[in-house]
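Dear support,

Our group has been running a series of protein-ligand predictions, and this particular one with NAX is the one our PI (initials K.S.) wants archived with full inputs and outputs. We had some confusion internally about which version of the output was final, so please treat the block below as the authoritative record. The input we submitted was:
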Amino acid sequence: MKSPIRVTVTGAAGQIGYSLLFRLAAGDAFGPEQPIILQMLEIPPAMQALKGVAMELEDCAFPLLHDMVLTDDPAVAFRDTNWALLVGAKPRGKGQERSDLIRDNGPIFVGQGRAINENAAPDVRVLVVGNPANTNCLIAMSNAPDVPKERFAAMTRLDHNRAVNQVAKKAGVHVTDVQRIAIWGNHSATQVPDLNHALIRGEPAPQVIGDETWVRDTFIPTVQQRGKAVIEMRGHSSAASAANAIIDHVRSLALGTPEGDWVSMAVPSELGEYGVPEGIIFSYPVTCRDGHYSVVNGLEHPDYIGEMIEVTTQELLRERAVVEDLLGSRP
Ligand code: NAX
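Confirmed final output from the archive:
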């Protein structure tokens, strides 16, 4: 058995946390040989609920769960952590605009970025899930100047998985028959779900589907609006599927992507190309190996995808302008 790794989950008593913690402890992200120590961060009013969640984790008698830390202090939560999963944030309230949400949640990621910088293990990897995920990730990264930029990502894997499912359903195949879907840009309604490079059973997806109207008028808006559609049906935002996407993201990074396929992750734009300016966190298709990712470069876009990428880029630049004062001194 390997020695345990430390995994921090923020917002651990929230709805995503309630699915995520149990799957982490079961070995779904790091495999059946890798014990973990869960370091769970909450705000003081949620500490009692967190204790209840920890009781349930104990009651599972998970062989891989070696220890638990429950705290409302970021310095304790991030101490020596190898994986920082930043889920905790306020959801959008009634009548709130996206920019209000950014201003409400931004400061959380200033403090957590600093705490990661001061306390985390040298190999720490950070995944930001709390919305607006891309811009929160930028804030955390810019406040953690000693942690290499490529260790930071925001989550677009749920969007990616949603897109894979829509394509599989349309083509009448299983999800494992669909490869090379890409999500570009922001984890928001301007995201660009792209099947132009995808393969269905090894054949080009656009030809197999043969229905460009469906791609533009159904596939893209369905993936963009899927989170809203789930809220309308369930009365709550996606939680188990978001936790599953976190597991998928971490597993891809920790254990690698399959030969010939890729996944989507929002990463610092300077690591990619495609005409995206430096200094934002932008979703690209990536391949992963040995704990590192590489952006898939050299893909050619049809004009409409290029135009959509421009729109999502502009949105990310506007979000960045709203939090300019929260960005640390990192060059
Ligand atoms: P919940 O409101 O159920 O849980 C959030 C938890 O975070 C609460 O327990 C709260 O006490 C805690 N929290 C708030 N501020 C904190 C802080 N400063 N430090 C530590 N904990 C703090 O939300 P949940 O449904 O779990 O969603 C969490 C976040 O994920 C939201 O911001 C949501 O918008 C975002 N999502 C992101 C997705 C993505 O694909 N990137 C998809 C799912 C989800 O909507």
